[in-house]
Specification:
With 422 residues, the chain is mostly beta strands. The protein has a 4-stranded antiparallel beta sheet with strand order 4-5-6-7, with no helix packed on it. α4 crosses α5. The N terminus and C terminus are likely disordered.
């Protein structure tokens, strides 16, 4: 990117070849050269597009910071921010990107999974939350903004994590939270009837979704999930004698579409008594994963079901009795399912390519670990990001990554446990 920092001439004295694909721009006294194609990547509504389509005989002058311009020009070329961008305040980059009309590109660069350096993670920010309540649920949006439920409040941060707003809800505590848009979220609790659709900007409830069970008692929310088209909600009756998963149309004012997994509890049928406490859409198989567990005198048992929402049938069901999951998740990228054993606290993986009920769990850690009688995995969470698997254990984090060894893909036995206590 040629720049001419020493130039003191007026931009009107510079001319360029109108037949050339090269575009020269004077920003704050520095000349930058790029191509029409690069400028077109900014979109038709951006200032870059206007520069690209303007008369090239006279070099356009922009009275802005040339150093910030060079960073945004590099962003246009590569889709990523250059390393020197770290020396600038993110708010300065935001204001500048808004001026040029490319804030969306800046957001995409910050939320790009390829930007995650899995084995070089460190704590970079502590979120300032109002009050003394600990976070109970967190949800992100595609544009990078973040919503955090703590106590009866929801605090929202913009994509730069620089600005926040807090609203008070009707809940005593929020157990489930899912962002439907940057300004709208679905929230529910295990001790409060109904799923609330909340306008986070105005702080009011737009809509309440409920499931009318046989006993006509209230229905509490156990879990929330979503696909691009549907909202999934796991309800349990207030009497805890029935449960189901309701499906709503996200593109039709949350109209109820159907329900799956409706169970009425009779006698000692323990399996039917377990509501789904986690819902995850598996786009690679067009299936909904629903998991739930129950702690009883004989230990912790649970089940993991994969539902075909079109037919309402269970395609695959795994029953967990030995070292049942504390948490479970599916990775589309790795075509695998991961769990944290509630007894051992170890991470296990199962291959989902065959979708077979007999698929074995393979321990990624100490496979022969002897349990101490304590539930080492209690409260642990596991999530995936690209080909990375992240597991929280207390105040620490383990990171597992897929590596290519020769022509065979295997899971590494190395992990990072250096993020410290939060």
């Amino acid at each position: 990117m040629p720049t001419f920092a020493g130039s003191k001439f007026s931009s009107k004295e510079f001319h360029q070849n109108s037949n050339s694909n090269i575009v020269t721009v004077d920003v704050g006294g520095q000349l930058f050269q790029t191509t029409e194609h690069t400028l077109s990547l900014a979109g038709s509504k951006s200032l870059f597009s206007k520069i690209s389509s303007s008369d090239h005989v006279i070099i356009p002058f922009i009275d802005r910071d040339p150093e910030l311009f060079s960073i945004l020009l590099s962003l246009l070329r590569t889709g990523n921010l250059p390393s020197k961008a770290k020396t600038f305040d993110i708010q300065d980059l935001i204001f500048e990107s808004q001026f040029y009309g490319i804030e969306n590109l800046l957001i995409n660069s910050q939320s790009n999974p390829s930007q995650l350096d899995a084995f070089n993670l460190e704590k970079s920010l502590v979120f300032p939350l109002s009050g003394r309540d600990s976070p109970s649920a967190i949800s992100t949006t595609p544009n990078g903004s973040l919503h955090v439920a703590h106590g009866s409040k929801i605090t929202s941060f913009d994509w730069s994590l620089q600005r926040k707003t807090t609203i008070l809800t009707q809940f005593t505590a929020i157990d489930s939270l899912l962002s439907l848009s940057p300004s709208v979220a679905a929230a529910g609790a295990t001790d409060f009837s109904g799923l609330q659709i909340i306008d986070l900007d105005k702080g009011h409830v737009k809509q309440t979704l409920s499931w009318e069970n046989v006993t006509r008692s209230g229905s509490t929310v156990q879990a929330i999930g979503a696909s691009p088209e549907f909202l999934f909600t796991s309800f349990e009756s207030s009497r805890r004698n029935s449960n189901c998963i309701m499906i709503y149309d996200l593109n039709d004012c949350l109209r109820p579409v159907t329900k799956i997994g409706h169970y009425e509890i009779f006698g000692a049928d323990l399996d039917s008594a377990i509501p789904s406490t986690k819902l995850q859409w598996v786009s690679s198989h067009n299936l909904l994963m629903a998991s739930g567990s129950h702690s009883g005198p004989s230990g912790v048992s649970g089940n993991i079901k994969f539902w075909d929402i079109r037919t309402g049938d269970v395609v695959l069901e795994l029953k967990e009795k030995v070292d049942c999951f504390s948490d479970v998740t599916v990775s589309d990228t790795l075509s695998a399912m991961f769990k944290v054993g509630v007894n051992t606290g170890e991470v296990f993986v199962a291959d989902l390519r065959s979708m077979n009920a007999d698929i074995p769990w393979v321990c990624l850690g100490e496979g022969r670990k002897v349990t101490s009688g304590k539930k080492e995995g209690l409260g642990c969470k596991v999530e995936t990001h690209g080909n990375q698997v992240i597991c929280s254990k207390g105040g620490n984090v383990e990171l597992w990554s897929e590596v290519l060894i020769g022509s065979v893909q295997k899971q590494t036995v190395d992990y990072r446990e250096s993020l410290g206590r939060t």
